[in-house]
Design goal:
The protein is of the alpha+beta class. It is 25% helix and 39% strand. The longest helix is centred in the N-terminal third of the chain and has 16 residues. The two termini are 15 Å apart.
């Protein structure tokens, strides 16, 4: 098993994709897999780019998506023209690619069957890349988790569109305008994941005592606006400033006696709906769930990342799906999470993108996260 990564920032798309092909060919000869990401700057030529990679490696599975930023080789490029790729020679590994169109899916059982049929037996890992405008990943995720029970699932929602409309997803030599593309890994490969969090809880935990969909109608038996205002006023001035920059609420992922950083799904507080009933979140909430205000903090995000990477054995190759809310905007410097992986684990072949939501398991349950970095690690089976 052998991996290689490449990242190119050539302004001319043909030069960039030729550089990717040359790098992978020199390192791997003929790869079996190419995971490809590119920024929106290559919008007019993305179909040609994907087709060119597939022509160069006709027997490879080519899969990927557009991203507002991409990363590779320990570098992260945000807001500039760039293409990144992870290639792999995977002898004996079965690669099972598929595309789902939500308009063609009926019930959750239909979604689970579609994923199960695509994966087959002996699945060791599953990557999914979806478009947030045309595919409700949160609604289908339980079906995906059921179809891939006990299997590491990872991936992201694509990013980079400047207006509501489908993000492009790549599969073989085709570019899909939305939906979901997936890739199952079977046979002699070991897949593992790491989820590093980017927000920390502040203020006291609170119970949702009444709710409806994504609306919180009561917190601890009181109007949510009154409770949230009091919690905010009790924060330190520095945490008040952090909260003002992004009004976030963490929703518990499981019942436990105490809650710390990494125990919450982070959701945006959207404000008071026009009818004045409660407070709306960027995601659903259930009655009696524990919630807590969250703030973005570069220092705590760095500490959590280092903690998660501590003791990780160098893999043969890796993918990184990191939130648009991380990167330079959070840390004030480029390349942070990729550099930390290189320094704490190894300069492993690594590629990925900045995402609209990251997919990974925490406490054995699969979620669409925000403000996280999700690593997928590939290696030879240890047995």
């Amino acid at each position: 098993m052998q991996f290689a990564s490449s990242i190119r920032t050539d302004r001319r798309p043909n030069d960039a994709v030729q550089g990717i092909v040359d790098d992978l060919e020199e390192a791997l000869g003929t790869p079996d897999l190419v995971v490809l990401f590119c920024t929106p700057h290559h919008a007019p030529s993305r179909s040609g780019l994907v087709a060119e990679v597939q022509r160069a490696f006709p027997d490879a599975v080519v899969i990927g998506s557009v991203g507002a930023g991409v990363l590779g080789e320990g570098l992260e490029h945000e807001g500039v023209s760039a293409i990144s790729a992870l290639g792999g020679r995977l002898p004996g590994v079965e690669l099972r690619p598929f595309h789902l169109d939500q308009a063609l899916l009926g019930t959750a059982a239909d979604a689970a069957k579609a994923v199960s049929d695509a994966l087959g037996n002996d699945t060791r890992g599953l990557m999914v890349l979806s478009d947030p405008f045309t595919f409700d990943l949160g609604a289908v995720l339980p079906a995906i988790e059921a179809a891939a029970s006990g299997v590491p699932v990872f991936g992201a929602q694509a990013s980079g569109s400047q207006s509501p409309g489908p993000h492009e997803l790549f599969l073989r030599d085709r570019v899909h305008g939305g939906g979901l593309v997936g890739l199952g890994f079977g046979g002699p490969i070991e897949v593992s994941t790491i989820v590093a969090h980017g927000c920390r809880p502040v203020g006291p935990p609170m119970f949702v005592t009444s709710c409806q969909g994504n609306r919180i109608l009561e917190l601890d038996g009181k109007p949510p606006t009154d409770v949230l205002r009091q919690v905010y006023e009790d924060l330190t001035p520095s945490d008040q400033l952090r909260f003002q920059r992004g009004q976030l609420l963490g929703v518990q992922m499981r019942d436990q006696d105490a809650y710390e950083q990494g125990d919450f799904l982070v959701r945006h507080i959207l404000g008071v709906p026009p009818d004045g009933r409660g407070v709306a979140l960027g995601g659903s909430v259930e009655r009696y769930a524990v919630v807590q205000l969250q703030v973005r903090d570069a220092a705590s995000a760095h500490e959590d990342l280092i903690h998660r990477l501590s003791g990780v054995q160098p893999p043969a190759g890796a993918l990184l799906f990191t939130c648009l809310g991380r990167g330079r905007g959070l840390y004030g410097e480029p390349h942070h999470d990729s550099r930390c992986f290189y320094e704490e684990v190894a300069p492993t072949p690594l590629a990925g993108l900045f995402a609209n939501g990251e997919i990974g398991s925490v406490h054995g349950e699969l979620f669409v996260h925000g403000y996280t970095s999700v690593f997928a690690l590939f290696d030879e089976p240890k047995d």
